[in-house]
Task: structure prediction
Amino acid sequence: MRPRHIAYIIWIVIALLGVISWAIPSNGIAFGKWTLHWATLSEVLGIEKDSTISYSDSTWLADIEDYEIAIDTTIVYTPQKQDLQPLQPKQELRDSILRSIADSIAKATKEPIKTAITSSKPNVTQTSEKTTTASRTTISNVDTRQYLTTFYQALDSASMKPVRVVHYGDSQIEEDRITNILREHWQEKYGGGGVGLIPLHQTIPTRSIRQWLSMNGVRQQVKGGPMRYMIYGPRSRRQQSNDYGVMGQVAVMDDMLVSGSQQVVMHIEPTGKKAPHQQFSQIRLLANNVAGEVKCDDTTLAITPYKSTLLLGSTDHCQIHLHGKGKVYGVSLETPVGVIVDNVPMRGCSGVIFTRINSTSLSDYYSATTTRLIILQYGGNMIPQSNKKSTIDGYVKNLRTQIKHLRVCAPQASILFIGPSDMSTRIDGKMTTYPLVPYLDKQLKQMALDEKIGYWSMYEAMGGMNSMVDWVGKGLAGSDHVHFTRVGANKIGQMLYDWLMSFQH
Result:
């Protein structure tokens, strides 16, 4: 018999056995004084009655962006809150059979297929922590700022050569929150101006610049203008290629032209608050097959994609006119020297998307802009969806892959990882820290030590366990017990800046 025929027979037998296990009551069938017992699915598989199962199949999970925690080619799925309901008998049978099939395949191929059992109730399974390597650096008082030497050295010469900082993060840094504090302090101390990289159309207004878009003289709504695709967020926003650019997004001018518009205009204006970071004297256009010019008052200058366009002087406003059937990845408002800080928020993202962005576009940008520090602020989106340490472990493993990838793309840049804040949920009627926040923070610290990157524990900086409740009470965080208010974000930004700059290199 051919191997696949043998596999079919095995699967059929497993299915029949599963049906029998499901059909026969757990207390057995009585025949007079005799009772026929049959092992239940829970007994056979070693799982509890109310459970769901995670599969290592990455195909059917393609539409689940919020829980995107790929482990190499393995994706672990944790149900959404609305999905956390007891399984019906047929579902239990289906999942159990699939689990058995996976185990059979693993034995046949001698390659274990990872599965994860997650409780239907959001309880944390207490499992023993495992050390992956015998020589792993022990978490201690090691100051990870020692791994940011490249960045610190670059700051010392910022007056002669620009220093770029790219701050990636989730919704905690939307509106340029936290990032703006770093930018203002560094530019005041080391020089520089401009808000750095911005998308063609800013769908979420920022605190640092007023930006809007018009097409053929008509102002566009937030969702108007050229079609925008993102590597993060709902799958409906994806494109087939990995051509997203350094911001993880792209605006396609072709789609705009279908509606009849021949020109897109970016309008850049100050927020009303006069500040150094709003003054820029250089524009950098990241685009393909797009031409344009910048208009500042009575001056008009041509813009060449991927080349800096030096303005005649500093300004806090301009109009950038673009046309052509191409792609726009972003525009940078900057200065020739000093510190430039990019704010790149990715709502709902967990930070495991960089390996799916064209590596050439990342490398070219980091090199051309002399990027010397990459900040990764992620982890918060994993907490509400995780109820097992194994899920956190898989997530951290994937983050290691992302860091290695970024290190290849930006060999001259230091990397700093910022862990999640304290986050609270209601447990027994009381707002309490999510059970896995401390564990994630600990694993991220270990990752930083192993990968030799900087790590700042926002969780510890806030005060640790149940500190979010205190921050909410003081008006520093919102009622969702997750996101900071503007005042709270400013405080966090200041704490981060003080921590970074207090290191004597």
In short: The chain has a mean pLDDT of 81. The first strand starts at residue 29 and ends at 31. The two ends are 69 Å apart (CA to CA). The domain at 126-133+142-192+338-505 is CATH 3.40.50.1110 (Rossmann fold).
